[in-house]
Amino acid sequence: MSDMIGYARVSRREQNPEAQIAELKAAGARRVFVDHGESSRISDRPEWKNCLDFLEPGDTLIVRRLDRIAGSERMAIEAINDLHERGVNIKSLTEPDIDTTTPMGKALFGMVAVFAQLRVDTIRDNTRRGLQHARANGRIGGRPRAMTPEQVDEAATMRATNKSLRYIAAVLGVSKTTVARALDDNTQRS
After folding, report:
1. What residue ranges do the domains of the chain occupy?
2. C-alpha torsion 28→33→38→41, nearest 10
């Protein structure tokens, strides 16, 4: 048997979620999970996790607005997609187009998901092409190395005379981890 489950969230502890809870219950929510003082940009909210664990295939998650469950378009699409894959519908009380219990809502979400995937694929393709172009022009993408080849040689010389990584890092003005990584990379190339 399917259930209607509500989720409410307020960003600050001093805010009162009672209005959201009342709206969700009036819309038919049998149970309402509420997060207090939790940002929508964090997906690891305690009651959100409990709500997700509670929902079963065929259930409908009711929210006042989509921003209660997600702080960005990407997070919203991921959340809705996850719920859809689990067989859970979603319904927004203030955004009537977001109601996957209706054929039009399902179709609209399908179109939004397609465009979101197109955006991700386009960004990935543009990044790949940009890196290929940079390589063709002799540039390498990624973060610049913290140590120059000369510093790596100097570090290897110091290490050969039994200087500690901490000592080498202090002399070269980098972290101990950077020295260890550079020496390891240098050994692997040799």
Report:
1. 4-99, 149-189
2. -70
Q: What's the pLDDT tens digit per position in 107-138?
A: 776 776 676 677 778 878 888 888 888 888 88
**Alpha carbon distance 50, 66 (integer Å):** 18
Q: What's the gap between Cα 65 and its chain centre?
A: 20
Place of tokens 């397609």: 114
Confidence at 141, pLDDT banded by 50, 70, 90: low
Nearest to 51 by CA among 22, 16, 86: 86
Query: Which of the four CATH numbers 3.40.50.1970, 3.10.20.30, 3.40.50.1390, 2.40.10.120 does domain 4-99 have?
Result: 3.40.50.1390
> What is this structure's pTM?
0.58
Burial (CB count within 10 angstroms: exposed 0-12, middle 13-18, buried 19+), residue 24: buried
E strand spans, 11-73: 31-36, 60-63
For residues 13 and 51, what is the distance between their CA atoms, to the nearest angstrom? 19
Q: What is the pLDDT of residue 142?
A: 67
Name the residues annotated as catalytic: 11
